[in-house]
Amino acid sequence: MTLALKTTDLAKTFDIGKRLIGPPRAQVHAVHPVSLDVQTGETLGIVGESGCGKSTLARMLVGLEPPTSGSIEIEGRALDRADPAAFGRLIQYVFQDPVSSLNPRKTIRQIMEVPLRLLHGMRGQALDDRIAELFEAVNLRPEFLTRYPHEFSGGQAQRIGIARALAASPRILILDEPVSALDVSVQAQVLNLLADLKAEFNLTYLFISHDLAVVEAVSDRIAVLYFGSVVETGPAEKVFAAPRHPYTRLLAESAPVVGRPLGGAQSGELPDPLNPPPGCAFAGRCPRASDLCRREVPALRKIEGDQFAACHHPLEP
Amino acid sequence: MSLFLKLLFRNRLAGFGAVVLGVIVLLALLTPILPLHPPNETNTANRYLRPLSDGHLLGTDHLGRDLLSRLLWGTRLSLAVGFAAALIAGLAGAAIGVIAGYFGGRTDNVTMRGIDMLMAFPYILLALAIVAVLGPGLLNALIAVAVVNIPFFARNIRGVTVGIAHREFIDAARLAGMGHTRILLTEVVPNIVPVVVIAMSTTIGWMILETAGLSFLGLGSQPPQADLGSMLGEARSALITAPHTSIVPGVMILLIVMSVNLLGDGIRDALDPRLRSGALARPMAATRVERREVPAAQGEGFLRIDALETQFQVGRRIYKAVNKVSLDLQPGECLGLIGESGSGKSVTALSVMGLVASPPGVITGGAVRLEGKDLIGAPYELLRSLRGRKVAYIFQDPLSTLHPLYRIGDQLIEAIRVHEPVSHGEAHKRAVKLLEDVRIPNAAARVRAYPHELSGGMRQRVGIAMALANDPDIIIADEPTTALDVTVQAQILALLDELRQRRGLAILFITHDFGVVGQLCDRVAVMYGGRIVETGPTQDVLEGPAHPYTKRLIACVPELGGGRRILAAIPGLPPAVDQLPEGCAFAPRCDKAQDACRRGEIELKGETRKVRCLYPEVAP
Amino acid sequence: MGGYILKRLLSAIPVLLGITVIVFLIMAMIPGDPATAILGSYATPENVARLNRFLGLDEPLWRQYFIWLGNMLQGDFGRSFALNRPVLDEILDRFSATLILAGTAFVLCALLGVIAGTISAARQYGFADKAITFVVILGISVPSFFLGMMMILIFAVQLRWFPVSGMYSIWGGGDLPDLIRHLTMPAIALSVVATGVVARLSRGAMLEVLRQDFIRTARAKGVHERRVIWGHALRAAMVSIIPVLGIQAGFVLSGAVYIEMVFQWPGVGRMLVDAILKRDILLVQGGVVFIAACYVGFNIVVDVAQAWLDPRIKT
Predict the structure, then answer these.
(1) Which residue of B has its CA nearest to A241?
(2) Among A207, B49, B80, B140, which has the minimal tally of Cβ within 10 Å of its Cβ?
């Protein structure tokens, strides 16, 4: 297996309250240094709640946001400058809100043509053929091409978004909550389509979601983010079934499941990002927290086999 | 385009403005070929002739010049100057605004500080200063008026551009390989154009007024050339002896500016998509009711909804959001109402207390009986006294549902005092108690907090506390945890469940999540296309769904612990409720559908378990 | 709150400096030199040069600016050559008259505009809404100077309810009732346009707010409809109305120039127009800086009011 994507200590800090001159009033560490490896053909699921930095991480990976520090390698090539066009041919992005990711004043054909023309220099018949091919791949009828985005339902618009991302012929797709704006009956359609496309085009996926069950259903490996840091990674079948980090367990127990009593009533909330605690960010909510946790930030380390966790007192399976 | 014109003329005032302005512009264009006296031909013998004099329809001015001729020539000038000023200001302002808004950061900061600086002058000071530099003259007045208005356009357009620059399709364009210039020209500008057109059309009138004003002061057009403003200025000295010389140009300015304004408003409304959909209408205090007959109660129930019909009437389209829905809720019971978006579950819930936004919502049939008393069409005052006291609501997004400018304590106190005449101090004590009841730490201090100072979970706790303020019998919770993270959702659900046990509350719980229903509700009703397709005890429905839709929907939901797999999906889309098919709304997506499913009315049948299906999965 | 006010006051300093720079540069661009304007076109070159030196006009531009700024900070705005009296004295005399006129008009437009706009929104598409909308369209379309002239014609000349012009009667008077009699027509004429604009924007802001979720929450609590409109909704709408009021204050101040011409009101606007026509540069400079500074001050008050109303601003 070859490495499709590798990040080394990738981090992002946002300045809050910028001034015309002088330093900003405060800084928020949206993403703490993150090192991830994704194998070719793999689906890496990234889960976390709002404010955990998963979208910022994704935007850095496609060059929409310049990283504050660290490096990104795609298929062995370093891509650190934030130039989305350079990233575009290797890695593409599917947005959460399918309708707002399509320019309301352009037809679907105009939207589809852009990446083909600008990234691959296609013209004329080749362009038309390629668009037809892509539309067939995502199960959309060719007559949709002359319509405008507002004429489509969320599920259809998301297929168009996927087709546009595929038009760049990327090696990797970042799927940023691709189904969370969709109803469940449509969500499954899109998820299954994504699985088919992956096999057909030999793609690598980064699948970002807040829905644990969805992530588990589509991923090979899962990384759990909390407060800007990766707190646990491991194979999809083990992460929620036998979590090593207390936060992962809290997540897994909070997900509503038919027939299980309500749990997690008193589990606290996220710390203030402007005033982060020293040590482990989860310590304030953690039943196992010790003085060590409140003092020292735990590093991501191997717990057993392919399960990694950033915890001083990891759980036993 | 034809749609635009149709919308424009639907507004009768705008049509009137268009006609008046059209006539004036036509006259101004034809002026050179009309048989008029030369505008500057003086004839001191005929000074101050009254209107309708021989040969001078509108009379003459202090030099005996023909007023009609001067009026038309002046109109030409004023119109041209006004349009030109609006165009210059609009384009220059838009260019500045688009660039500042798109690039943001330092470019934005520096530009906007400059704009703010210009806006620190009352506009006329700047105009006067510019005229002082350039010297009096119509062209200089035009420049002054245009320059002075640039900041307003720049600010306005910048705001809109910032909104667009952060939309996802801009990111998508960057990923597709577009550079900044291309994005600005092909992605941003087309979305800005309507805003610029609106801004220009609503300010042309103002520009005409301003240039006329400068001319009136003697700083614009110089004699003998005259625009409407300078005509008025020259006539001022004879206001009392020959008022017609003032009235004629003054009325013309009024006519021009008014017709421009009416037309501009029309253009604005026609271009604003929100007005087309009627989304700018203000919701009334209670939903409109147009009910022909009152259905008989179909059974017992603390809260009974019988054959409720709620529609959205937008233009000629009728969306049957709720279509003959019947439900009952017993004291202390938790009923889950589940469905996908557009299934009508929220509208059903809001109809109970007449909270569906109206327009466009109308309750067209059915009854909602609370302890046997029908609430549909009840007098507003009765409805109001029940809201919050007997039936309280918890809404979805706690950030938008709490008033952003009131302290949460004051919002709680208001909820108490609306229904109970207690002192402020007493209400305050109870507010603190309520916050403690919903487990908000440090409640005594938190009553002074504003909603934006709390986290999402805390805000929803406040929402729950507010619903509990008057010890209601029923709580209608409209997707109260959908906007929350999963760990916080678990906390809120546990709290609701506990409160319900302790206080004996009946809850109508609206959700799209089977997991939530399974954990919280005694009974469940499933909605599809505005109707209830299945209801029954939660356990039975989830374990043995009778309606094919319920069965397949449950199969679509991935459950944690299922491992990696291909998910079941339902092909097709939920129906649009403005064109529901005959028969079963699910038939087009159902693999069991027969011809009989596509005909007539299909009944909701059964006893404790009911199903609206001819070929149910299990016998109800 | 105190911290916010202080911050806002400090941030006004660069704005004020910017204003002085802009005004100074504009005035420096005026063609022809003031000495010639003062001495007339028959002046000898020696006399012109002497006067230029006396006025400091032979210094480099940036030095002139700092001298002018320094003098202004000490309260010395120079002397008006046309009126032959200190600029500041003249401005202060005239400004109080403008303040009375514009202040009255502003209060009128703010009160009437917000009330009319709120009623209009609450009764959307009803009779009151249509009537108000019509009057508002008429109001924003009529030139204030024309309206003033017509008011003089009708209420002063024909009906003789009010005096034609001026601020006080020449014989007797000079007391408050006399001032009010003189003030009524110009203040109304001045406020009409601004009232229309405020009413339109208030209506729009109210309609926007009335669709918000928190209004539905208030109704779901059982709050009386009157309180929903005039309490919950109006308070939230004020967040977008108050900045408009700040801008309208500038427009009222601007419109005062015309009204002062029409009603012979002895205000600062007429003074400026006369000064421009006579090329009395020091008077124009001083007048513009003074008015702009007052306007900046007023906008600080507006911002503070905004921050008091909206707790989200002070972060």
Answers:
(1) B561
(2) B80
